[in-house]
Amino acid sequence: MQSNFLKKIVPYTFVFPALLLLAIFSLVPIVIALLISFTGLDITGLGDWSQIKFVGLSNYLQLFQDNAFLQSILNTVVYVVVGVPLVIIVSLTIAILINSGRNSFFKMMRLVFYTPSITNTVAVAVVWTYLYNPSLGLFNTLLAKVGIAPIGWLTDPNVAKLSLIILAVWKAVGLNMLIFLAALQGVPRSLYEAAELDGANYWEQTRHITLPSLKFSIFFVTVTTLIAWFQFFDEPFVMTKGGPLNSTNSVALFVYQNGFQNSNFGYAAAGSFVMFVAIIVATIIQFKLQEKQRGE
Amino acid sequence: MVEIKLEHISKKYVGAKGYSVTDFNLKIKDKEFIVFVGPSGCGKSTTLRMIAGLEGITQGGLYIDEKKVNDEAPKDRDIAMVFQNYALYPHMTVFDNMAFGLKLRKYSEVEIEKRVQNAAQILGLADFLKRKPAALSGGQRQRVALGRAIVRDAPIFLMDEPLSNLDAKLRVSMRAEIAKLHRSLKTTTIYVTHDQTEAMTMADRIVVMRDGEIQQVGTPREVYEKPVNVFVADFIGAPATNFFDVTLQDGYVKTEARTFNLAVPEGINKVLKQAGYEGKKLILGVRPEHIHTERAFIETFPSATVKAKVVVSELLGSESILYTKVGDSEFVSKVDARDYLDPDQIVELGFDLNRSHFFDPETKESIL
Ligand SMILES: Nc1ncnc2c1ncn2[C@@H]1O[C@H](COP(=O)(O)OP(=O)(O)OP(=O)(O)O)[C@@H](O)[C@H]1O
Ligand SMILES: [Mg+2]
């Protein structure tokens, strides 16, 4: 009896420190945020807790009548729907291309494509702001050379979102490419050789050998990229502040603006909770799809 | 009808210092079962992969039915190959693994179904068609790999050490299955192994290789009975041949330290003398199974016997292996189990020099 009890308790003592850290820095803040989202907490409430008023669901009700918030949801959906597949396709393609060779050129390409990932976003964004500059920027200068009228990369509400997506994709490709490369290098050469003898051309080998072998890493990259893009923040924060006309504002940026610029903590917490639920739902759907695929 | 011809084929890998295969010449007849055998790194796989088209040919010509195919893509050579690690597609079922090549070659559903079912029948895989390779045992995977080759109905099979991942017992039974398969399908087959038993039991002809060069090509009987050099004599046969440095004198071979003195049969002595070896050094090669303990043999050849001390002895059921020592020459004999002796006992051994091999000590080549 005694030893049985010990046996059961021992594993928990090993995971306890990790659980404790997770609780303090992750779970507790989430719960607090949830609680705050039901209050009208603002800068006065921070100083004097007795000023905090319980407001029920009114933050949430207000959110869904707030055009700025609805616009930010729409923008975020665009970021996710366009950006996530783009990241996966581009990084997978680059990984497959880089994996096709072994010499120093391909090794250098690996470095070239990875560099954006290890560079600070703010620094990158500043540089890209110059590239995107309507009159002095590289892009418009190049376009002018081939006779195309200048594009308002960050000033045209229709284009600005796309400009930010391009930058974010460019930055996200490196790490995901590395994940794909690692997985690609785990695919035994003999599978390709067998397929070649079976009569598969390059495209058929990619389709029937490479992609199925990468199923798990594609899933992993999809989930992590999805989560990251739901929280799309750095790029609009640095480059556009959500403008022009709110056209690049994301939910994460909306939360930041309301929480830390306008000090409407209760309102911001409600916004962040909407985002949290959306991420959870999207991730669960992903897992279900993956399970279904594995089942058949 | 298919004939494969390798003419002066050499291979140097990019970045490698030397050649991995040098001047490989071989003509493989229709329906033949050829086995490449040799120690690790001697270039067996390299040669096989050049035939499959998975490696480029540095020099020489590869002909299939008189047509030079050096530059033809693997899929156009119509060759089926069984890989050492099987290379089954892990995400496909057994059925799909076998059907893949047929689907790519645009066979009809009906034809694919027929061929896969037929192969599954032959190989006893009918119950596993819906499983993925991960849910199969080693022997079953091996059979799927064979099945993938069979369904293609390709005129040439290549197999690179297909049995090396199996346990000893399974290896023996799969060996028999492959042999049986070859008898019924009659596909021209090239089989790579470093196991001389597999080579001896399966091959129509054996190609013994060493350091990228062919040492000997011949039937199992030929390479066993008439090895062209010390290497082949040593490599083919188990336990390995005993070699002695001896001098030929007055119809006897003697070791340096005169630990023993064996009478050479008249006919062989004459040939050796004619070849100018009288009074010269030789390498004598005697297979363990040609050293006898039977009284009858010893009484027939009393001047070809040696009294030796047993160092180690192994009883293998029907026979026993004696590791013996005379002076400082050690040798192995394979004798009847009844003649099993414990270590430190003295045994009288008769050498069957009629079936022994004589090699030149300089060139290491066979003299007879
Ligand atoms: N890709 C390669 N690049 C350079 N050298 C290679 C390459 N593959 C094989 N070699 C060399 O070529 C020689 C022959 O190799 P090979 O694989 O043909 O040997 P093998 O006879 O099949 O040996 P084993 O029984 O161990 O499979 C070896 O010395 C090996 O080191
Ligand atoms: Mg090999």
Automatic annotation (TrEMBL), chain A:
Location of the ABC transmembrane type-1 domain: 73-286
Keywords, ordered alphabetically: Cell membrane, Membrane, Transmembrane, Transmembrane helix, Transport
Any GO CC annotation of this UniProt entry: plasma membrane
Compartment(s) where it occurs, according to its Swiss-Prot or TrEMBL record: Cell membrane
TM annotation in the entry: 12-36, 77-99, 111-131, 162-184, 216-233, 265-285
Source organism: Liquorilactobacillus satsumensis DSM 16230 = JCM 12392
Keyword Translocase found: no
Highest taxon in the source lineage: Bacteria
InterPro entries linked to this entry: ABC_transporter_permease (IPR051393), MetI-like (IPR000515), MetI-like_sf (IPR035906)
Topology of this chain in the membrane: Multi-pass membrane protein
Main location: membrane
GO BP annotation list: transmembrane transport
Keyword Membrane: yes
Listed Pfam families: BPD_transp_1
Family: Belongs to the binding-protein-dependent transport system permease family.
Lineage of source species: Bacteria, Bacillati, Bacillota, Bacilli, Lactobacillales
Protein name listed in UniProt: Fructose-amino acid permease
TrEMBL record, chain B:
InterPro entries in the record: AAA+_ATPase (IPR003593), ABC_transporter-like_ATP-bd (IPR003439), ABC_transporter-like_CS (IPR017871), ABC_transpr_MalK-like (IPR015855), ABC_transpr_MalK/UgpC-like (IPR047641), Mo/tungstate-bd_C_term_dom (IPR008995), NA-bd_OB-fold (IPR012340), OB_MalK-like (IPR040582)
Superkingdom, natural source: Bacteria
Gene3D superfamilies with a match to the protein in the record: 2.40.50.100, Nucleic acid-binding proteins, P-loop containing nucleotide triphosphate hydrolases
UniProt keyword annotation of Nucleus present: no
A Gene Ontology BP annotation from the UniProt entry: carbohydrate transport
GO molecular function: ABC-type transporter activity; ATP binding; ATP hydrolysis activity
A Gene Ontology term for the protein's cellular component: ATP-binding cassette (ABC) transporter complex, substrate-binding subunit-containing
The name this protein goes by in its record: ABC superfamily ATP binding cassette transporter, ABC protein
Native source species: Liquorilactobacillus satsumensis DSM 16230 = JCM 12392
